[in-house]
Amino acid sequence: xxxxxxxxxxxxxxxxxxxxxxxxxxxxxxxxxxxxxxxxxxxxxxxxxxxxxxxxxxxxxxxxxxxxxxxxxxxxxxxxxxxxxxxxxxxxxxxxxxxxxxxxxxxxxxxxxxxxxxxxxxxxxxxxxxxxxxxxxxxxxxxxxxxxxxxxxxxxxxxxxxxxxxxxxxxxxxxxxxxxxxxxxxxxxxxxxxxxxxxxxxxxxxxxxxxxxxxxxxxxxxxxxxxxxxxxxxxxxxxxxxxxxxxxxxxxxxxxxxxxxxxxxxxxxxxxxxxxxxxxxxxxxxxxxxxxxxxxxxxxxxxxxxxxxxxxxxxxxxxxxxxxxxxxxxxxxxxxxxxxxxxxxxxxxxxxxxxxxxxxxxxxxxxxxxxxxxxxxxxxxxxxxxxxxxxxxxxxxxxxxxxxxxxxxxxxxxxxxxxxxxxxxxxxxxxxxxxxxxxxxxxxxxxxxxxxxxxxxxxxxxxxxxxxxxxxxxxxxxxxxxxxxxxxxxxxxxxxxxxxxxxxxxxxxxxxxxxxxxxxxxxxxxxxxxxxxxxxxxxxxxxxxxxxxxxxxxxxxxxxxxxxxxxxxxxxxxxxxxxxxxxxxxxxxxxxxxxxxxxxxxxxxxxxxxxx
Length: 612
Hints:
Keywords: TPR repeat. InterPro entries: Sel1-like (IPR006597), Sel1_AlgK (IPR050767), TPR-like_helical_dom_sf (IPR011990), TPR_rpt (IPR019734). The protein has 612 residues and is of the alpha+beta class. It is built from 28 helices and seven strands. Helix 12 (197-211) packs across helix 13 and helix 20 packs across helix 21.
């Protein structure tokens, strides 16, 4: 017989995940908090999910619930300690299990398999839709295999077959949250078997949820219409979703007004009614669109001052996100605004002229385009090549005047589609302010207080990457200095950068009893590391310090823990108590070498989401 949540928890679930407005979500979250405080372990787990944001559809985009990963971790920890199998699913859906959580699971259930069996009773027919959706997600991501440390079914097809029935059940019970993942499964089935039944079922489900007014589904259907060029139908879907507060739908409406897709073209309406309010709230696509509207003169006159200001805000926002995602090295695509900034800085339109720096930036961006390919639309490539031609025409930077090269690059710029539309009426000369500054600097030199923060940098990209790296380092200071990496007896593992110090002792205890194969403290930007495993009741410790490898053995757990704690404090190892690996007997040296070469098949590495 299927298990059910208590009535207050079910009501809260309905408010958060089956209503689509911020007020209902807020009320539901408060109800979960009250139920959790009264001792409901399931409520703690579901409450943790409400703090994860909409990035991976933990909650709907329209819920407006604040993101707080620390609160999410605290809630899910209470849920697991309270014996909630659903709480375990809430944990593994987004990250690996902390050592303390793994220990609590073993103490309460005895095994991961027992947790899974209990969780499945909530996901049975007649049970809880959100439990079925969670279980389906955990199978699809491979998180269940990490819980079990059993990877026999862990391939794309195995995950799909295990996830599909649970996702399907959650949809049939009226929870739309799992439809995106169900559709992914349906697509995989079609690719493998040629059967369209599940794709057709997904389409029917989307129609059902669109009729029910689910904003996310209306937006998805709008995207389908847009991709087919059915702009009026797309606009209708976006409009319905936007009415419920769906931000990307509002952005799409603004974009369509800007270009007259399915609606009468109106840049004024696009900017004032849709894009600018979103941009002022930090919505990236809208921030870029605001810069473009001002730069290209969609409103009639070009406003380079506002355009450049929005470009700066885009770069500043990326710096902010880098600080919140200190281990994320990719996904920060600010290429779209650099050509605009190059023009403004080269000619002094909308900002203080910095021609030499602009030249370096233009040349670097074109080098990247020619060597690495480009994500830029053609009219922005045309802008860059036009500027490169101007560099040779004017002899800017360290480049001599070369009229032949200037003509070549000007002609290349004109060959790009959209040149006349986008660049035909541009001024290719310094602004009056830029001309005056350059003239004065040529006579008197440039005073320090007249320089901008970009004047002496190599180029805008290098400057931006340096700012982002500084923000990452500051972000890392708020986390543990050493990454905690654990490996299970089979192939699974998890890495943590957010953990309490006692988790190291918890991890060592699990190494001692064979639950973990090993633990390691390392840094992503350093080769220094300390690894501990337990063989024949002896703790074997391997350290790499500044390229020198050391080995130590002890039967006392407290000594092994003391070594780990000393390492965490940045004190390295007391070399007089450790044996350099080159002095270890040959047979043992080969074993040490094998340990270093082991690769963790990391199924559940913990990253810090963008909205951390």
